[in-house]
Amino acid sequence: MSHINLLRLYIKNIICLCEGRKEDALKKYPKLEDTIEFFAARDPSRNLKYIAWECAVVESGQALQQEVSDVIELFHKYNASLKKKDIYQYDPKSDFTVLRDELFALREKKEKREEKVEKLYSTTDAPNAPLVYESDRFAVNLIKNKSAAQSMGLGTKWCIAMKNKCYYENYIGMNVVFFFIIDKTDNDPASATRKIALSYKRGKNNEITKLEIFNALDVQLNKSQLSEFLGTENEEIMITCDHLATAQPMGISVKLFFDLPLTPDEEMKLFKSATAPVQQDDSDSISFNNRILDKLCQNVRSPGVIQMMWELPSIDNAIKINLLNNHNLPDSFANDVMTHNKINSMKNHNLPDSFINDVMTRSTLYDERIARYTKNVDIQKKFIDDHEHRDPKSRLFLAMNDYIDVDILRQLWNDSKGSQSELNKKIKNSIVTNPMIPADILRQALVDPNENIRHWAFRNKSLSREDSLKIALDERTDYISLLRLTESTTYPDVIDAIIEIMQQSTKQKLLRVIEAIAQNYSVNFANLSTSTLMILLESKKLDMYSDRAHALARHVKDDIIQLKLANEPDKSIRMNLANNQHISLKAAHVLWKTDNDLNHVRIQLTKNPAIPTDLLKVALKSKNDLIRNIAHNNPNAANV
Predict the structure, then answer these.
(1) Structural domain ending residue among the three candidates 250, 275, 309
(2) Which pLDDT score, from 0 to 100, does residue 357 have?
(3) Residue 421, by phi and psi: left (phi above 0), alpha (psi -120 to 50) or beta?
(4) Positive or negative CA dihedral for 154, 157, 162, 168?
């Protein structure tokens, strides 16, 4: 075999390995698709060996994707100097901060980072941190720009205060608002409580979804610890910060990352900001700007910005390729990009058939990509009819194609049934996860002797409600099958049926099914029956601090469940329940009566148009100025 052929074989094996790891990550973390693409683009190993660990860290909520990627880059560079040289020896749910600090120390030692940063660092914007609260002891500042985060965060270990880094921009891009609490009486520079950071995470409507609190050593505190530290000033400080956090306008980059519509002027402003000159050594600013350009490529509508992006000589070709997925582009752009990079261009579902045929005639090197993405039925058939002359693995990638012809998918299934080869097993696995799978084949897969085939068949999103109910109610369905169905179904009545059946089983099996419900991110908990929800809540298997528990509190209509949640000790649950547009009279009264001196729950309840009339009257006469003002702004205040 020639050196050229060996090189081609090596490249193909690397591509297959990367695709396999990427597909595994997408299956395990379906909600992190954009994050997985980000990690794949910045992978220092070139074979995605870190991607599973990176996704686990992001899912645990320890850090954003930018910070995780930076740590992985350092790990790849310095792992030989660490005691643990395999990334998977570090627990992604708890060891991230320890690993990050260890790697930062190594970098400072080997590259004399402090001298380098001081030389490179300069601020062009004056710090913008308006004082929102002040007493003899405390000063509270709203952090409005990066210069403020760096100057006021001096002496802390907060990543947003780091020089020559883009962590602040990353958090602002995720719609986070920061407040710094300064203890003016503490002059010890090493004190952990000399400075406190409040990090308000906000949703698409600027509603507060999570509050995180950090001391100067970047150690997370809970609300009771903060309350004890602030003492009698806690209520006024927190009410002020809570109110201002929701009132801050959403940044343009936030709108971009939330896929909210942008005006042409906003698109132009983002483009100019992302293409402004930066120091060549500032890799983080370059990376953040590339993220902006990458996202802008996918969503930009303004013809002027599109043209400027395309003509920009310094733009990364990998980012420019994303313009292929933007439906607002002229066809000529696609032809230009294909000339630059044919392999990545094969991902485009709208490539001209003549171009694909030309590529297939010249070589089999791109068969896997073409089979994975082509919509053309005639081209799909070539991988079946002419399989002896095509790349053997192309049939596996064809089975993954979301646009595959149903008859071709059926032929792939029939061809793979009689074979025990590893390739055909993988083809069957891919078929049962494909949303285009015909109902008759899916039913066969659900009773396949191979447990792995059954496992993925239950996870197929095309599994109908009727078939799911039949499986759940069929007495021949075993416990493992019910468990797999519970993990993946999107139908609340199927969950209800399974719970009713499992109550006749052992306690251990019932608890395992309840755990599966708690981890099913596809089902809307608010639509589950009262009995199922009560079992779920009483089992303590649902993380009451999770977004899913908060969503349940915001949307559940059942009076009994609302009362149950109203008595939850977690304030976040009660605050979300206070926002529920269907809140019952009893639940509202429990919330009002059991709220503590901070009045957070009462404030949210007063904002709710569904607040009972008698409580709105109380709010209108409240001694608390904020509650009284909010009550007057309630749409029903005029009728009281």
Answers:
(1) 250
(2) 64
(3) beta
(4) negative
The answer to whether 232 and 133 are in contact (CB under 8 A) is no
Q: Is residue 179 domain-shared with residue 146, that is, in the same domain?
A: yes
Distance (Å, rounded) from C-alpha 498 to C-alpha 469? 9
Spatial CA neighbour of 135 closest among 179, 178, 177, 181: 181
Distance, in Å, from the CA atom of 447 to the CA atom of 194, rounded to the nearest integer, reads 63
Cα 314–317–319 angle (5° rounding)?
95
- Domain annotation covers residue 10: yes
Residue with tokens 């952990």, as numbered in its chain:
192
Could you say which DSSP state residue 527 is in? G
Residues 68, 101 share a domain: yes
- Among positive and negative, which fits the CA dihedral 414, 420, 424, 427? positive
What three-state secondary structure class fits 209? strand
Report pLDDT digits (tens) over 532-555. Answer: 999 999 998 888 877 778 889 999
* Angle value at C-alpha 145, between 108 and 240, nearest 5 degrees: 115
Which tens digit of pLDDT belongs to each residue from 113-124?
A: 445 444 433 445
pLDDT tens digit sequence for 162-198:
876 778 887 888 899 999 999 999 989 889 999 999 9
Q: Is the residue at 371 inside a domain?
A: no
Determine how many CB atoms are found less than 10 A away from the CB of residue 323.
21
pLDDT confidence of residue 116: 44
Structurally, the chain folds into a number of domains equal to 3
Sign of CA dihedral 373, 379, 385, 389: negative
Report the alpha-carbon distance of residue 448 to residue 461 in Å, rounded.
18
SS3 category, 201: strand
Same domain, 146 and 72: no
Where among 196, 227, 250 does a domain terminate? 250
Tally Cβ neighbours within 10 Å of residue 542.
Answer: 20
Q: What is the 3-state secondary structure (H, E, C) of 388-439?
A: HHCCCCHHHHHHHCCCCCHHHHHHHHHHHHCCCCHHHHHHHHHHHHCCCCCH
pTM for the model stands at 0.44
346 within domain boundaries: no
Pair 216, 191: CB distance under 8 Å: yes
Cα–Cα distance between 580 and 229 in angstroms, integer?
A: 32
Report pLDDT for 181.
Answer: 96
The single residue listed with the structure tokens 């992006």 is 309
User: Residue 523 phi/psi, 5° resolution?
Assistant: -95, 140
CA nearest 206: which of 144, 236, 259, 251?
251
**Same structural domain for residues 23 and 93?**
yes
Please give the DSSP secondary-structure letter assigned to residue 282: -
Q: What would the two tokens of residue 108 be?
A: 């400072």
Is there a domain that residue 602 lies in? yes
CA distance 189 to 216: 10
- Residue 485 CB neighbours (<10 A): 27
In angstroms, rounded to a whole number, what is the distance separating the alpha carbons of residues 168 and 288?
11
Rounded Cα distance, 553 and 16, in Å: 44
Number of other residues whose CB lies within 10 A of the CB of residue 368: 26
- Let me know: does 488 contact 458? Beta carbons within 8 Å: yes
pLDDT value at residue 361:
63
The stretches in the chain having pLDDT less than 70 are 1-18, 111-125, 164, 278-285, 310-366, 387, 389, 597-598
Residue 134's H or E segment, with its range, is strand 131-134
Q: What is the rounded distance in angstroms from the CA atom of residue 186 to the CA atom of residue 229?
A: 12
